[in-house]
Fold each of these.
Amino acid sequence: MSYTPNTFASLATWLNTPKGFLITMLGVAAVLVALGFFTSTMTIAWRELKRHFRSLPSYLVLAMFLLYQGVVFFMLIHLLNTPNAEPSPPMRWFFGGVIWFYPLFVFVVSILTCQLLATEQRERTIEPLMTAPVRESEVVLGKFIGTMGFFMFMWAWTIVYIVILKYAGGGQQINPGPIMASYVGTMLISGLGVALGLFFSSITRDIILSLAATFISLFLAFIAKLLMVFDVVKTQGDKPGKFMGIVSSEWVVKLLEHTMIIDFMDDFSQGIVDSRNVIYLLSGTALCLFAAVRVLQLRKWR
Amino acid sequence: MSNSEVIRIEGLTKEYPETVAVDRISFSVSRGEVVGFLGPNGAGKTTTLKMLTCFMPATSGNATVAGFDIATQSLQVRRSIGYLPEHNAIYDEMRVAEYLRFRAALKKVPWRKRGEYVDEAIHMCGLKEVAQRVVGQLSKGYRQRVGLADTVVSKPPVLILDEPTSGMDPGQIVEVRELIRHLGKENTVLLSTHHLPEVEHICDRVVIIDRGRIVLDATLAEIRKSPEGKKRSLEEVFLDVTETPSSFWHPEVEEPEEEPEEEPKEKPKETPEEKPEKAPGKEPKEEPEVEPEAEKDENGDGDGDAEEDRS
């Protein structure tokens, strides 16, 4: 197998088939189980997942999420049922509709992640935790996996919508590929968000500060998107064609196009698992987790 | 190092930008010993224990716990200790048995033995009736017992307890004392506390630390018999060796001028490796300083002088 863009493209198409997707998921599950046998990571992850199911904020987030998604789904079906609507698969719009999905995402991520390490440091439970024979990386990874577990639980409820479409959709064909790609994309983007929140949670012991930092940084991406949508970037600045009078606005637009996680969902919802996007998201996640581990280790140099 | 030394501390130091919290302390704890680690508030007890449990690195000096170096073999050290922190923080949302199971898993107790170990810890610490209660709802005494159960759940050879009886009522204190005495039969225990009667009941040996330095390291028997043959309580000794301004709290007790006379006679016996009382600054040359200071102590104005100089 040669190392060409083709390899990635074929990998992406393979991932996109139900079989490839299932095999990948099984592989991921196997890795997680192996982690559980060999390290404390899964112990911490399991405890974190249980904590989510015992905390009020998590239930509020869950309720808010389901209500919001339900309303979006209802409105989508309603719109697509108007006489002059083009026939198109509803789930493509359900996942691809950035403007609907993203504000909720910002809230959900920042509320679910703000507590993870900030509370540990404030309540000093970090002391018994770190004097047990566990590494900082195991703590961070465990918390990440536990929170992702809660995200999966949250999103699992949206499968109900697909069931509704299948049995009450008037015989409309449902294409599993794009839907699976959408879920993969959702999880990848959530992963980046959770890792970012985990990082902000590690640098402070104040929950509100951690929440605000995550919220603002994720919201900035939304604002950047708005700038793009309304073409503000190109018209900004003293000189024409210069963003803030410094860099070429073309350049800024290009940068935003390639790095904006908001736009990734558009691809995923059409069934396109672009390896560039996947690698971008995964490496961003890894970077945030690594930074969080380093911040936890900082305690040793104070 | 000899095999019987489970904890060995050599010149352990913790410096902060403004202060020196722990200043070149050295002592060791042998296998099966129960050692009381005493000192006034802010003397550096908790800092020392945090360094021993690898929660905090030392600025200099080294220490071994169960034969592992705290700086380089942190995971092995943490595997062989059970540590009760000063602020006994427990996840409030978990149930007692569940929490202990979680801790046992973290401490790498094999999966098959976890249930058994947790049951033993629950039984040992008298948590049977609250095993299914949520930790957040427990009284402080019970919380403390959960913390103790956590320290013993993996059956570590070394127990490091930071004020195990704080916040307990007298009845509970007696229970915990019995528990620690029981644990001390098989384990090595390093116990920090303010509660002196507790030490007199449980410990074999006492290490007193004051302003980051060890001022006394002796067995209880050595402390009890004074040279004149009259019995001395631990409290008297404690007040003698630490620089508690007793005259400030009890204006009628103004005898620090008299006491140095009887102190120096036994001091050399008790603290052979005693550090200099007063080291002005952290000058690199330590050796020359030690001797004049030691001489001073023998001359009988070690403590008295140091106190006067400071105040």
Amino acid sequence: MSFQNFDVVIIGGGPGGYVAAIRAAQLGKSVAIVEKEKLGGTCLNWGCIPTKALLKSAEKFQSIQHSEEFGISVKDVSVDWSKVIGQSRTVSSQISGGVEFLMKKNKISHFAGLAKLTSPSTVEVNNDGKKVADLKGAQVIVATGAKPRRIPGIEFDGKKIISSKEAMILDKQPKSMLVMGGGAIGIEFAYFYNAFGTKVTQIEMLDQLLPAEDAEVSQTLGRSFKKQGIDLLVKTKVESVETTSKGVKVTVSDAKGSKVIEADIALVAIGVEANVAGLGIETLGVEMNKGFIKVDENFMTNVPGLYAIGDIAGPPWLAHVASHEGIVAVENMFGENKSGHGVDYDNVPNCVYCQPQVASIGLNEKAAKEKGHKVKVGKFPFQASGKAKAIGEPEGFVKLVFDEEYGELLGAQIIGTEATEMIAELGLARALEATAEDIFRTMHAHPTLAEAVMEASGAAYDQAIHI
Amino acid sequence: MATQISMPKLSDTMSIGVILDWRKNEGETISSGDIIAEVETDKANMELENFEEGTLLKIMIPKGGKVPVGGTIAIVGEPGENIDDLIKEAEASLQSAAVEPAKEEAAAPAAPKLDVPPPVAAPPVAPPVSAPTAGRSGRVKASPLAKRMASAKGLDLGTILGSGPGGRIVKKDIESFMASGGGRSLISTYANQLPALEQKDVPVSQMRQVIATRLLQSKTSTPHFYVTVEVDMTKAVELRGALKEASVGSVSYNDMIVRASALSLRQFPEVNSSFYGEIIRLHGEVHIGIAVSIPDGLITPVVRNADQKSLIDISEETKELAVRAKEKKLKPDEYTGSTFTTSNMGMFGVENFSAIINPPEAAILAISSIVNKPVVVDGQVVPGKRMNLTASFDHRAVDGATGARFMKELKRLLENPILLIL
């Protein structure tokens, strides 16, 4: 089979790969993208997007249950589980179709199949075990992403011991569920299933949910989860998991001793591992770092001309990081990065979409102090926000961390409804190097939740008005 | 008829130039092609070539001054010509463009003064005036944080070059300005007083980090061995002269060595290889990297398929790559993918040195100066032109005898340079 030549061949059609492909096409390059499943990757098909649809169902259900306080009585509320799941799948496939359209619009050659690197610049595409194409790229980008990591010794069976992928398409709602892991994915599923009435037990090995987050934020979330009915066990380790005819029997231990928890299903959400199997990178001598591909600041591996972006190039494993890496990698490799921008890993927003939502960017108070900053912290609770009270969402707060010397915004943490939308303002503030005073003096519309951001920056200097 | 010389756009992103030094003084005769000044742009320090004929009548922007692209920097004409109107015109346009006037102590007169003594240990940008931002017209783009830092430290933002979008001054620029000693006040000192040396911790740039990692890895994990040959360059020197005379172009010795290396590599594929543990890849193409020194490190532009290019093609391509390398404008595919590298220190009068292999290549060639020295030919001591070449080989991929034969072939080609033209 003769080679089809491209300026760049991209392996993986997720938010890293397809964004890189579009950027390269915008620069007038010939681009091939190889994807073994549907375009859009984990993000569109098995992650960000379908889970947001599921979470919206849970929120709607919760808000109907609390509609009484707004003067609306609703009777005979019922949940059609298959429609909850169906809605989420419909959204996924619509958006994946949208990505396919974008590939066509940008004249990107899409090859369906499994890619294998036969040299640093050649890619063999196989579909159903049959070779369908041989591609040659002046540059090659690996963007195959990552998949749920298993606990050593505990295998996924897809029925009783499941990963996030199965958790978003269960045929029927389990009566009880054990969630292993207190990170973003575990938290979103714990919230989702609990909201629909599944008895959820969540286990985290470290001392708080979202171990990297501000302690106050994590405590507030933990309290809210307990109030919502989730049984939350921190500083707790999973010792063993056993499947029974009814479900799973999980032995956990903490400082006080061990106990057995039974549930219909165990969800393992303890992180991800790189999708490297079958890629052929071992034979090319590609250097790895803790199971992920090692890259330089141009996202090039140790093999010249071979690049890696997104989850496969290591943490943070986030769709928006992958997309930015894809753009920077492509612009650099074609000499089109005129302003010389890189990916600013100090300014990556982290978002969790349970209720209350959690969003943060930059350094939290503890991390800032550890880095030697003298800090000024400003906090504003939504309890004191007119808008939050009016819409019945007074839970949570905005916390801003400033460097004392010049009022530099070091980081922001928000917990509360719409926190994930509000964090964008603080990302921009950090990118443009706004100081506390700039944020405080920027007029924020009344009444909005975002006023809490303005007030928190005032609070750092004892100038908040409504507290 | 006098004319103005204005600041040209020396890179496509350049908006402001800093006059680092004047190579010509007022009153000197200049002609087209002369280098009249050295200019710092956003990318690099560059020479400013003159295209006018006449006498340099007036320098509008003294050493250290900043001027936007298109601003008048000097006036050229006939000696004694009246250029008052031109000066006024230039001053007006400079003021409206909000350029830095001549920078001196706060007490300096408003009009540009010409014989400014060189500042002590000139920072990379124009020295700051002591009064912060006072009396400055025009907008300086700076982040709120940068403005606050500058005002706290008493810096004039107008003297700091911004690295953010559109030249915006950000925190990093203030920090690097301070680190480069830009924050020191400029008390007038005697021109001949030695500036004090000071201990400085310089942050390691990304490029330095890459150099450090890669070369440490190479030197510690690649078993190097070295082979030196002395090459009789008499005929190469003659050939270069002949080509120049025939107006074929100025081919350098380096170009000849690149071509000779490429031809030799074709014959010794083991030298044009990479050792990958399980396999040794004999490359199907010959791409030669040429180490070029740039201000904060080095970069290796690549002449692709050098074995299939003529000497003239190699020469032209190398020149063009070197210029863009120094401007930091190479695309990644222009500095990656080499299968063999050359490093030339001949211009420094180096007699012999050895280089560290650039992984995953199997060899690197260190090129020294051509030295005039007495040599013995047919039992007679005669003047000779000799050059040392030292290759470093990766012993995992190349054995001693192969390395030696490769060097012998390289020597043969360079001693019979007509073979390089065929």
Amino acid sequence: MAKLEIRNLLKKYGDNPVVNNISLDVDNGELMTIVGPSGCGKTTILRMIAGFIKPTGGRIVLDDRVLVDVENNIPEVTPENRNIGMVFQTYAVWPHMNVYNNVAYPLKIRKTDKSLMEAEVARVLRIVHLTGYEKRMAHELSGGQQQRVALARALILKPKLLLLDEPLSNLDAALREEMRGEIKEIQKTQNVTIINVTHDQIEAMTMSDKVAVVRDGYLEQYASPFELYENPYNSFVAKFIGSANIIKARKDPDQEPDENGMMEVEVSKDYKLKVPYKKSDKTHGFISVRAHHIDPEENSGLVAKIVRNLYQGSQIEYYVVIEGNGEELVRMLMDVDYMWEEGKKVEVVIKKAVWLDE
Amino acid sequence: MSGGMKTNDQRSFGPTLIWWVVVSFLVFAVVYPSIELIINSFKVGEGYGLDNYITVFTDKSIVRSMTNSFKVVLSSTAFSTALGVFLAWAVVRTDVPGKKYWQRLLAIPYFIPPFIGAIAWTFLLGPVGYINKAFINVFHLNSSPFNVYSIGGMIFVMTMYRYAISFIVVLPTMKKISASVEEAARISGASPWRTLRDITLPLISPSIIGAMLLTFMFILADFGVSSILGAPNRINLMTTQIYYLVNRTDMANNLQIASAYSLFLALFGLVGLWSYNRVLKTNKFVVVSGKSASVEPTKLKKKAKVLLFSLLSFVFLMSTFAPIASTLVTSFTKVYGLPFAFDNATFRNYTRLLEIQNIKRAFGNSVFLSVSSGAIITIATLVIAYIAIRGGVKGVKGIRFMQTMVTLPYAVPGTIIALAMILAFSQELPLLNYRLYNTIWILLIAYTARFMNLGYNNISGAISQIDPSLEEAARISGATHLRSFRDIMLPLLKTSLIGSFFLVVAPTLSEISLSALLWSVRNETIGTIVYSAKEEGRILLTASIAIVLIILVVMINVTINNLSRED
């Protein structure tokens, strides 16, 4: 297990910053996921941790060892001396070596005794359920098996830190589910800190202890999955994690929290609701509302016009326009008891929402 | 497909006919001459024996040509491969300035006919060559320091042209290696050097070995460079020795000894081809593709960068710029050997090309030969490759035989093919009472047989990339087999077919090793008149013909390049 500290990490190509002053800590034994749309800089961050890309600025410290510190001119530790395990998106299983030699390679580099090497390879192959595949070549393996070889190779040195670069994106849905569980299992049994990169928010939510949401090189929010979902920092995070509705709203910037720590916001002329208090000097902003937090209620004052209804069996997904709140489509999930025609106007309430400045 | 469905396969009479025409042609132009060659190699007077072979391995001048070949072929292959691989690495994997431009510039020698390059080098390193004269002037020497008419000269000139083969073969492999396989080694603890040794080299070695074998076959088959640089000092290689033996009409059994020697030489070509195919087949090292970070080029220190840049410039200067420039300058001079100045400049060498009968005729003949062999090969290989790959045409037999007979003439040196043609066609053809030898048709047959492999490989590669379902969709829509071929395959193959045509036209236009033995008066080719103009000492004409030929060949290759980019 290891503690990773990233401070003011910066990477520019020419004048164009792709990673912008990111700072974050990963605690011992945590599984941290960096998530964001493609091109947001998440892989660049991972590759700077591995040492394949030299940062333009900032510092990375693993336990008490400074891997790179640009401002203080500390010589960068080369990838081969970082003692980090890494699984590549393309697996990078060497096609000219069999499974045994692929997995044993890190030990071979370190001139390990042959009998110990055999025992260690057997140990990691057991972890990834590939016992008996030692003699196979890369092209004789399926994608899922190649992935396991890559994982075994990354684990054989018992690294304190394991980097995963979109490891599940090339697998089919069923296999992805299975590997997710196995990676969690490895995190627990092998006592390893894991940093995972993905663009799949469900993967980020289900696997991680902490999630870093990155957009255009900026760290938008760094928190636990629960915190991200319940209390998104801005509309990007709210939409990206669990695709929340972002509805225009206004409030009195001078109001104080009430006895329950709430404040009042106005969605339309005839509809106000209470949301958790946030210190903010804005009058105009947004609220984030989950699709299942909208319920029908007579005479609520909030009128929604059904634009589209998608019957899903267990529930119905409606897309509506809120009267007096522009033309934005708002998504809501209803019980099948409520079957409304497209074009019908219904009254609803918002049960739960979070204020967002932007 | 249900057996009851009428698929109109009966109408495949046309393709079947073309198939059998091609197979008969191959029997006539490849099998029959090969048999003649083998029989002749054992012919001694009226009977048969091994005497010719004994002569081959005992005659002093023949044995010397073997050792010469040994020296030239092995060292040029080694130097060419090493230089080509190094240059490919430099322009792909380092941050040397102008990488993209170097990737194109350094490939140019591949497209220049090597015998033209050899002639160009005689302008630079011949006894009164520009470089020799420069050295004499600068260092006040008494004689020219370099002699291009030597074994060393041959090795040098061949290396300057043939490195381009490994450069072109290895370059895409270098680019394809995904960064992550190397990074995986680094993160496992391997140093950059260890990564190069354990990962990068093993992954590209099949491609390097393949390139080396190709280079070996090309250099072994060389006739142009070795005859131009070897003739003045009577330095023969195996190919030029065979040519020499064929022309030694005063020697008893000369053709038969040449046949025996040819079979010995062919053996090397065939072993080269066999190894090459083995490397291709066993090469399962498909580097993992898919989305991955592009390889970060090796960062060179400033000094190393300057050094590497100068080296690339030097290779470009030596292989491309200097030879072409010297030929160009020579082609505009009045008197060879005098310095190039305004009062020594003239267009005369170009206008004379249009005045001299046999030169005009040679250009006409070469254009006729390359266009017609290009057209014949394109059409014939389209049909036979389609049938061989897709199958399903009635009355077709001998696919493997056909493929072997298409490959064989390209695998062995052209000089051997020419000798086999002479043996087969210098008598009248039975029944027809027509003698092919001394006509232009023997050249057409030889060209077609030798270069069919180029068209076949190109078109069969294109066909196997087209999914059969495209045609099946046409069949299910009601098109006959022939109709679906016309409506689906032909439009899809259009650029490949044009590509095939030019792929054959380029080397046939400057062909020398077949033509040198098969030409006759009135049936000259561009290659043979350059050659004889050089022999006769008409240096200035040689230069202007060479320039015209270079322009033609470069134009054709630009066309091929543009076609393949459209695809």
